[in-house]
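User: Hey, my collaborator sent me this sequence without any context and asked if I could get a structure. I don't really work with proteins. Can you help?
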Amino acid sequence: MPIIIDFPYNGALHLTAFSLLPANQKSEKIMDIHHLKIFASVYKNKSFTRASEELHISQPTISEHIKNLESSLNCRLFDRMGRSIMPTVVADVLYPKALQFLDDLEQIQDEISAAGTGIKGKLIIGASTIPGAYILPRVASSFKKQYPDIAFEIIIEDSAKVTAMVQQHEILCGIVGARLTSDKLIYAPLLEDELVLVSTKKIMNQKTITLQKLASIPFLQREKGSGTRQTFENFLERNNITSTVFNIVATLGSTSSVKQAVKAGLGVSVLSRIAVQEELDSGLLQEIKVKNLKMKRKFYLVRQKKRTLPPQYLAFSKHLKKAIA
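Assistant: No problem. I've predicted the 3D structure and written it out in structure-token form, which is a compact way to encode the shape of the chain:
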């Protein structure tokens, strides 16, 4: 059965219902696109409650939409088991098709807008701490000046979380400081960064140190999942050292909190040069060279191989690469 997109006068989007059941059981009812969006959220979150929170819609309304969708498709999409739900086989088949359909529909709208008035719409970008706090705000500002009808939402999480959000189709792309092995993702290098050991003179008043000596100094580390932490631990492994031998005095969830703790004299840490350059220039922090260790890394733009980026994302990607080149 062909899918027919209808744009009625009030702007609501509808399509002729399709069914995954045999032809003699197909429904001919009209199904609102909103049903599919709600279904995708419920399926992804495996919860009516979490879908309600994500979409800012009441839980009874979520349940009603799913019930209407099941009626339109003449099948059950979720088995209700007490307080939990389990997607049915039909839901497993429908989910990727629904995502693709919603993507295609959004792209149609974006391309029509772009053809008429230029690049416009919303950009939702995930970013690990360093690009999210120190790179994207500047680039977003210059892009916004060029395309004033663009609205940004920048989600700052650690590299592992941002990558997971891309893999789970929660966002279209992200900027991360560590590559995770996956044949479903594309990583495009953006810029190079360097990790540096920083301290205050009260903790360490010297210019160089060995890794073996560093292991005895009070050390502050980022949380598990941080690209900075993963990169540092990778360099340690290449030197046959594990972070477990370090004198870890605190694990902190952001670069900003680590910097503040170092300034307060709680310990030393390895951080992005981009993040601490201002403090190094002002003398609030000092860089200590680690003998025989140069910790270079790259930031990447990550996206799904099979997801097509809308026009505003393609334009921003091009602008981003040019701005930080």
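In plain terms: Residues 89-117 form the longest helix (29 residues). You can pass these tokens on to your collaborator as they are.
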